Amino acid sequence: MNAENARQSRPQLKILEQPTNRIRYRYRSEKGSHGGLTGENSSQNKKTYPTVKLENYHSTAQVYIRASLYTNEERPKSHVHKLMGRHCNEEGHC
């Protein structure tokens, strides 16, 4: 098996839709929900959301995918803003 076939046979996460780059982050003091993180193809008439697909996973076991925010740089760093929500911890991991 060559390196390309080995890579293709391992489980991998494929990004189907990136998050939008037009979002106003809220301060923790701004109580309440201000809507979810929308996808880059979202419009006023049709909301889309960041979407991923787990490929080459052949098990019936349930999978949890943890999301975090990182900068879009050559050497990504944890983003200064944190994700918030019911399923997120204090570090912003959801």
Architecture overview:
- The model has no long low-confidence stretch (mean pLDDT 79).
- The chain has 2 domains: 11-26 and 36-60, no CATH class; 64-94, no CATH class.
- The longest helix is centred in the first third of the chain and has 7 residues, at 3-9.
- Strands 1-2 form a two-stranded antiparallel sheet.
- The chain has 94 residues and is low in regular secondary structure.
- It is built from 1 helix and 2 strands, in the order H-E-E.
- It is globular, with a radius of gyration of 16 Å.
Entry keywords:
94 residues, single chain, 2 domains, 1 helix, little secondary structure
Brief characterization of the structure:
This protein is largely without helices or strands. The chain has one helix at 3-9, and strands spanning 12-17, 51-55. The N and C termini lie far apart (36 Å).
Task: State the major sheet.
Answer: 2 strands, antiparallel
* Overall 3D form: globular
Q: What's the mean pLDDT score?
A: 79
Q: Kindly state the percentage of residues in helix.
A: under 10%
How many structural domains are formed by the residues? 2
Write out the strand line-up for the largest beta sheet, numbering strands in chain order. Answer: 1-2
Question: Roughly what fraction of the amino acids lie in strands?
Answer: 5-15%
Category by helix and strand content: little secondary structure
**Regions with pLDDT < 50 over 5+ consecutive residues?**
none
Count helical runs. Answer: 1
- Rounded to an integer in angstroms, the radius of gyration calculated over CA atoms is 16 Å
Task: Please report the distance between the alpha carbons of the first and last residues.
Answer: 36 Å
Order of helices and strands: HEE
